[in-house]
Each structure stands twice: as C-alpha cells, then as structure tokens.
Amino acid sequence: MRILVAGGGGFVGSHLTDRLLDRGDEVVVLDNFSTGRRSNLDHLASTAQVEVVEHDVTERLPDLGSFDVVANLASPASPDDFARIPLAILEVGSTGTRRLLDLALACDARFLQASTSEVYGDPEVHPQHEDYVGHVDPIGPRSCYDEAKRFGEALVMAHARVHGTRVGIARIFNTYGERMAPADGRVVNTFIVQALRGEPLTVHGDGSQTRSFCHVSDLVAGLTALLDHSTNGPVNLGNPDEFTVRTLAEIVIEMTGSTSRIDSIPMPEERTGDPAQRRPDISRARDLLGWSPTVSVRDGLAGMIDHFRSAESVV
Ligand code: NAD
Ligand code: UDP
After folding, report:
1. Which end of the chain, N or C, is more open, meaning fewer C-beta atoms within 10 Å of its C-beta?
2. Which of 219, 218, 213 is nearest to 294 (CA)?
3. CATH number of the domain to which 23 belongs
4. What's the pTM value of the predicted model, to 2 decimals?
5. Is 145 considered catalytic here?
6. Is residue 17 within 6 Å of ligand 1 at its C-beta?
C-alpha cells in the first residue's frame, strides 16, 4: 500500500513508518518537525520506499499523489507542550485533522486517527472502556490537548457520516520506547535521563498517580492491525499493566543501577488536572484485532535504557 504518515518524524510515527516499510508498504512522511526530530528518520536515508516532506498540516497540503491509507499522528503530545504551544495543538487537532480527512476522502483512502486516553480526562471509571465518555475539564491547562483530540474524534465521525469516509480511531494510552525526545518532559524518558545522569528523579506530588505503559513496538503492531481493519472504532491501544509513578521511579533506578534519589516535587501548574489513575480496558482490541501487548515494562525499559545510553548522549 501507499501510506501517508502525518507526524511520521515523531516518536510513534517513526516507529510506525519502520513497521510499514518492513512489510513492504511505501510511505510518505509529512511532518513540520515542531516536536519530532529528523534524526528519527536518519536510518531511512537510503530507503527508496520512503519520502519525507516537511510541511505543517494546518496549511494547505501539497500535491502528494494518491494514498491507500492516511494515518494522522501529527500533534504535540507532551504535557510540557500544553503550556508552551496550546494554540498550535488546537489548530493541528482541528484544521490539520480536517485537511487530512479531506485528502483521505479524495483518494478513497482509509483514515486512521491517533487519538488518546486523554479523551477520558481524569477518569471516574476504571479501567477505561471505549464506551466511557470521559471526565474532561474544558478550560484547564490540559484542555488544549484533550479537547483538540475530542474534537478530532468528532470531526472524524462527522466526516464518515456526511461523506462516507472510511475511518478508524485509535485511543492510545501512555507509550514509551526508543526515540522519545529526551527532554520533552514525559515521565519515562525524564526518569531514565535523570537516573543515567545521577540526578534526583522528580516525582510529581506523592507519586501515587498511576499510568499503564505500553512499549512502542506493541503499539505500532496495534496501529497496523487497526489500519488494516475496517472498524471505525474507537479502539483502546495500551498495556493494562498499571504502575504508580513512584514505582516506575524505583524500577528505573534499580534497572539503571543509578545512585539517584527520588524527590517529590509539587505538581507543576501546567499539569493541573493530572489524571489520578489510567488503565486501558483492551477487550475490544483483543476481540476485534486479535491484538494484545507482549512486551513487559522491564523488557521495554531495558531496551530504552540501552538506547538512551548509546544513542541519545544524555550522560
Ligand atoms: P511526537 O511529538 O514525538 O510526534 C508528533 C509528531 O507530529 C512530531 O513529529 C511533530 O513534529 C508532528 N507535528 C506536530 N504538529 C504538526 C503539524 N502542525 N504539522 C505536521 N506535523 C506536526 O509525539 P508522539 O508521542 O509520537 O505522538 C504521536 C501521536 O500519538 C500524537 O497524535 C499523539 O497525540 C498520539 N498519542 C501518543 C501517546 C504517547 O504516549 N506517545 C499517547 C496518546 C496519543
Ligand atoms: N511525572 C512525574 N515526573 C516527571 C514527569 C511526569 O512525576 O518528571 C508524572 C506526571 O505528573 C503524570 C505521569 O508522570 O502523573 C505521566 O506523565 P506523562 O507526561 O508521561 O504523561 P501523561 O500525563 O500525559 O499521562
């Protein structure tokens, strides 16, 4: 297939691009590199089946030819970005998504939207099933991202209802792995960098909040299965293994052999509304796609720690 990966220069998008190329697809990466990195694609420099186009998807799209699939992963994703570039996040979730949907319709391509567990907000139902409609503050510091993603889902469904566009929605839960930008402020990469440098690990609050961490190799297997399927979703993709943030810090210290201590610091202002708990119910992904994650957090962290030691020059 010929596949457009918008946001393909980012952490998840570059791994999805690798997976699609590996199985013989042709990929066009469309990215403005606002939070992604060109180095994520360096290893593909001599691969003929991939083309990289630098472009902001909120602007009129260049003529890129026809596609069988349009995958929309273009969006900043770290809570640190929510305070830094909130308007850009709302713009890419709305205008950017609309432009890519129109392209998919024009090509009769399947459209895959990378949505997020943030659509559930600070959930009052645990674990989160796709039928749960969420608990989101529409005006708080996280709202630029949460509501952009909720609007994105609404747009995708309206496009399908009005035009018959073939769409799918992946609700992605916290994902980690090689090529996360070391300084983007997300928790797994932050803790690994701090541990490798011997700096204190900065646990926000008392660290009792939970997340469920999925290795990127599992996630892209799920995204690929969803892209090949015809369901419009939404489908949760994540690893149901749930940890407190404090436990994650302890595991990272143990696995890196670091002498770092753990510091509790106040929850940063821009993270007000930080979800207290998050875990995906993945029964739909299991039943529909035959997908479930296979990489344990310890195995996934081992690879990521090696990568950060050797490739990211963080020490
Ligand atoms: P990332 O920041 O590494 O990747 C996002 C990519 O989108 C970057 O390469 C960035 O440059 C690009 N981009 C941003 N705005 C753009 C624009 N206007 N035009 C073109 N490109 C643009 O983040 P990621 O973790 O790889 O996330 C990828 C997608 O998955 C995002 O849509 C995110 O919301 C979603 N997601 C990720 C996670 C996670 O844990 N990684 C969880 C839930 C959802
Ligand atoms: N977190 C933390 N220390 C950090 C970065 C994050 O304790 O240096 C916490 C953060 O407050 C949140 C959790 O780790 O409770 C996950 O944060 P991340 O930014 O990775 O993802 P998200 O908040 O989007 O789930």
Report:
1. C
2. 218
3. 3.40.50.720
4. 0.98
5. yes
6. no
